[in-house]
């Protein structure tokens, strides 16, 4: 019994050491930009997950006696014109785009990937019909269409994320369709067809999962970063995004119109730039790594 448990622990330690050495060597090979972007993305993910569990009342946070305080040990990023902690509002502002961005990215990548794979694999009238519908949607100017929808319907971040994901489905489907059309002449795909593999398995596993995973990952992260951008832009405009007193990076930047000091709006603006740049660099790095592994 003791020998069996010792052997099991030895196998576990061997597996862990192999995994760690592989991960460590792969991490060392990555450029500095990918390492920095990975750290930022992990921080955003952690903050986004724990955000709903941190209670915050934007009304009770108002204290005019501490307005426009400079950064200090008590208030790391200072306070705004209403005496609210900039650091706490910057943290809670992640909640405005995090889950909507995840939903939009996953939905756009899934639907766009499936539609693109169907168009590229089957072709014929099915592919032409789907492509025509997708091209029609792709002609819509995204920003203008979002503002128009928010004007017609009561604006909400959920509505913004859904419309954003729908508007990105055509571009994702086009990328996947071209990839699938190129893969259709590959020998291993033709071999699967000749051996009678079901088209659903060929499309879902052998094409989408094995060959298009890097593309879908990159596009999903891109949609997530776009939701962050569009949410902050609409919140900055004031009438369409997250409304005061609830925090959003966009309506925090909008304080530049009335703020007597810089930090209440400069720090959120810097956070927007760094986060979007890190997301795009991370997505490109993941896709590049996937392509290197395949080669």
List strands and helices in order, with pairings:
Elements: H1 2-29, H2 32-50, H3 86-92, H4 98-122, H5 124-138, H6 142-152, H7 157-183, H8 187-194, H9 199-211, H10 213-237, H11 249-253, H12 263-294
Helix pairs in contact: 2-12, 4-5, 4-7, 4-9, 4-10, 5-7, 6-7, 7-10, 9-10, 10-12
Explain how this protein is built.
Helix content is 73%, strand content 0%. The protein has a domain at 97-220. 35% of the residues are buried. The protein has twelve helices and no strands. It is an all-alpha fold and 295 residues long. It has helices at residues 2-29, 32-50, 86-92, 98-122, 124-138, 142-152, 157-183, 187-194, 199-211, 213-237, 249-253, 263-294. The model has no long low-confidence stretch (mean pLDDT 83). Helix 5 (124-138) packs antiparallel against helix 7 and helix 7 packs antiparallel against helix 10 (213-237).
| Strand segment tally | 0
Order of helices and strands: HHHHHHHHHHHH
Overall structural class, as computed from helix and strand content, comes to: mainly alpha
Distance between the termini: 45 Å
Mean of residue pLDDT?
83
Gyration radius (Cα, Å) is: 24 Å
Output the number of helix runs.
Answer: 12
Q: DSSP strand (E) fraction?
A: under 5%
Low-confidence sequence ranges = none
């Amino acid at each position: 019994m003791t020998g069996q448990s010792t052997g099991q622990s030895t196998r576990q330690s061997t597996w862990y050491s192999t995994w760690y050495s592989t991960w460590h060597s792969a991490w060392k090979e990555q450029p500095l930009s990918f390492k920095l972007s990975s750290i930022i993305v992990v921080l955003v993910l952690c903050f986004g997950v724990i955000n709903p569990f941190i209670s915050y009342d934007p009304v009770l946070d108002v204290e005019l006696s501490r307005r426009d305080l400079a950064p200090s040990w008590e208030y790391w990023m200072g306070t705004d014109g209403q005496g609210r902690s900039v650091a706490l509002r910057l943290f809670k502002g992640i909640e405005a785009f995090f889950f909507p961005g995840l939903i939009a990215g996953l939905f756009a990548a899934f639907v766009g990937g499936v539609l693109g794979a169907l168009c590229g694999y089957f072709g014929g009238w099915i592919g032409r019909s789907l492509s025509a519908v997708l091209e029609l949607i792709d002609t819509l100017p995204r920003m203008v269409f979002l503002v128009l929808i928010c004007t017609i319907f009561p604006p909400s971040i959920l509505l913004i994320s859904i419309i954003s994901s729908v508007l990105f489905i055509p571009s994702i489907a086009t990328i996947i369709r071209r990839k699938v059309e190129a893969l259709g002449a590959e020998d291993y795909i033709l071999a699967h067809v000749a051996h009678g593999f079901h088209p659903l398995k060929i499309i879902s596993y052998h094409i989408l999962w094995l060959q298009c995973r890097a593309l879908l990952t990159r596009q999903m992260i891109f949609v997530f970063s776009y939701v962050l951008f569009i949410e902050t832009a609409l919140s900055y405009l004031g009438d369409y995004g997250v409304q005061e007193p609830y925090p959003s990076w966009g309506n925090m930047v909008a304080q530049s119109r009335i703020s007597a000091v810089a930090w209440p709006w400069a720090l959120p603006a810097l956070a927007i730039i760094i986060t979007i740049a890190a997301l795009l660099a991370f997505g490109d790095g993941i896709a590049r790594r996937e392509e290197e592994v395949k080669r």
